[in-house]
Model the fold of this input.
Amino acid sequence: MVDASFLQRIREVAAPAGSTFEVRSPIDGHVVADVPDCGAAEARLALDRAANAFEGWKRTTAYERAAILKKWHGLIQSNEPVLAELMTFEMGKPVTESIGEVRYGASFVEWYAEEAKRIAGETIESQFSHKRLHAIKQPSGVVYAITPWNFPIATVTRKIAPALAAGCVVIVKPAEQTPLSALALSKLWREAGGAPDVFQVVTALDPKPLSGVLLDDLRVRVLTFTGSIQVGVHLYERSAHTMKRLALELGGHAPFLVFEDAALDAAIREVMACKFRNGGQTCVCTNRIYVQESIAPAFTERLTAAVAALKVGNPLDPTVQIGPMVDQAGLAKVVEHVDDAVKLGAKVSTGGRALSGLYYQPTVLTGIRPEMKLMQEETFGPVAPVLTFKTQEEALRLANGSPFGLAAYLWTADLRRAYQVSEALEFGIVGVNDGIPSTAQAPFGGVKMSGIGREGGHWGIDEFLDIKYISMGLG
Ligand code: ADP
Done:
């Protein structure tokens, strides 16, 4: 069970509501905690509080904001074991990966504590001697952040650390599966000296009533969302009426191109890390492994052996590599995709079946055809489809032939090819001989249907800053 006193502490910071809902662990279905089920009334209250808090927070200096962010970073670090365990209980991530996520999530807080001090405007030359022209950057206002369950800490910090550093105030609505990690971050924010109304968490089983209030209010100036394309499109349309700025991190369908000059062991190591972390439940996990024909048999054989050796089980066990799927719907999608592929002629090299509870066998499939469901949308599970290509041109055509454009990967020892292919891939993120490229100081985001805007690096803070032009007449 999760540390009871920690649970009690984090529940105190939830926006109260008339009713509650249960957070159930995918490990065995037990109830981890009850949290408030917020609706429209709670959203209005949170928004009034946020708008009021913005008047104070926007006037703080970058140095004052940085000091609180740094303390917050220290508290996330010192609470690493309990945060990691909570995350594993909430959504089933293997605990060693949960520790990695706490560190990765904390790194955004540290980086933006530093970046707050580097927000800078410009002076612009005028053609008139009696005028001085300036462009300054100011915080946009209230930010509404909607986050998914698959990275319950890192998707929150990646959005709100830059927003807070910029001088914005935030309302976070975490996924219904993982409200506790977001609440824990909010608790630590307060312990770091952050004002409660500057970073609020509203939890809800149904996101629509409370989101409706926030989406339709002019005071919310930025919407930042990570989740499905379907919901992203809806939020984009709805936000038009109040002309909000949007950052949308939507789904991916990442190709991984393995060229015949690749060192197989290293390529397989990175494909494994890319595909199977979080049980395949990330938007940057590869969904299509394209291998050059001459090495395909050897690659598939070694990949199959590595996948068959993965340890599936209770994610609290630090030796386990694959935990449960997050919920019944998640498991059902994996089953549906594999069954559909097999029906249409795919061959199972290893795995291919659901285990008890929410567990699924790590799987390798060959004989993949474009019309299979797993080639159209993210499977979000431990399933590795292996396909082949003949030439670099064909590999690029296959990789780019998708409405998605988040992450893509390639493995090659040829420098010229590395440049040619990485520049020609129509994706926001490209890993060359690197299966896990994401890091706090680099831009994260997609093109085409994978979204708009960037998180991370100096790009990530610009999403929360408005540019104001000031012309100063001296005449
Ligand atoms: P996933 O398939 O990963 O669960 P979703 O897009 O359904 O992706 O969910 C991601 C986040 O978006 C969650 O916090 C969820 O509650 C929220 N969400 C889902 N539907 C809506 C909606 N209509 N309005 C606002 N938020 C939503």
Notes: DSSP finds 15 helices and 18 strands in the chain. Residues 146-148, 173, 175-176, 207-208, 211, 227-228, 231, 234 surround adenosine-5'-diphosphate (CB under 6 Å). The first strand starts at residue 20 and ends at 24.
